[in-house]
Amino acid sequence: MKSQIIVSLAVASFLLFASRVDAGIINFDDGTLGVAVESFYSAQGVEFQNTSWRDSLNYPGTSGALVIGATNNGGLSNIYAYQKADAVIAKFQLGASSISIDAVDVGDNGFRIDAYDSLTGGTLVDFDEVLGTGFGAGSVDKLSVSATLIRRVEMYQLAAVSVDGVLVDNLEFSSSVNQVVPEPEILSYWSAGLLGLLVRRRRHEKSVA
Ligand SMILES: [Ca+2]
Ligand SMILES: [Ca+2]
Hints:
Blueprint: H1 2-18, E1 23-26, E2 46-49, E3 51-55, E4 66-70, E5 88-104, E6 111-116, E7 124-130, E8 140-156, E9 167-174, H2 184-208
Helix pairs in contact: 1-2
């Protein structure tokens, strides 16, 4: 009976810890202004490409002092402006089933997020887009994509009708349960528990023999 309880606890704790890598939120406020994000959030399962921290300008809808924008924006005079060829890219190691971001200050250049099923290339599995007016002062739009498996998202302005820019903040993502891969330390924790159980059982068998 006791060993059954221990097994149940081991399995329950394994599932509990495994589910922790199942979802995440990144507010980008732990970075450094002007620096490239790249692999800064790889422990949370996300790697960025052509992405740098930018000043949030305390615009409504942003969190804290920092947001993200394109490292290389194709030479546009506004560092908050970038189009499809210079998209901000996020790659998900485990694969995500739903992803959302806050697009702040989207004006008539619009903004779009494309979701793909591969780290490079692949098939477009979902997209979301928004179009504002003027320079988009005060606007806050949550863009979201969902699919069975998303490995990469690309974010960019739809058009360049003006020098207007956009601020991207608060990335939220979740993975479908069958794509959850436990971290190595969780596996070792779990196997140590099982080993302890086997030793106990042996001792028990010896004592009754
Ligand atoms: Ca932020
Ligand atoms: Ca704007």
